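Hi P.,

Sorry for the delay on this. The queue was packed all week, but I finally got your sequence through. Input first:
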Amino acid sequence: QVQLVESGGGSVQAGGSLRLSCATSGITYSSACMSWFRRAPGKEREGVAFIASDGRTIYGDSVKGRFTISQDTAKNTLYLQMNSLKPEDTAMYYCAAKSGRLCPRYPEYWGRGTQVTVSA
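Then the structure:
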């Protein structure tokens, strides 16, 4: 059974940083596309960052140069380091996964989300 549990969200001022974590079980990182999505109030869900099974990373245009996705396979944990945060980064952030080596792919597994709020 696949489980994804996010943590690390919170409130921060613009220009600050946060690191999100996602504890996973039932996922084989060597054959999965892991990702972070977000949904802001009144907006559609947006793919923020992806990491393929070969370590290749893909970022959404709005976060390039500010966010970094990484994974620790020994700890079965996915991370999202977010720097230079802006008020428009305010959203619920979701950890997600899709089995297979193609990436980016729309996820089949989702966590419940962690809220990030950035104040001006």
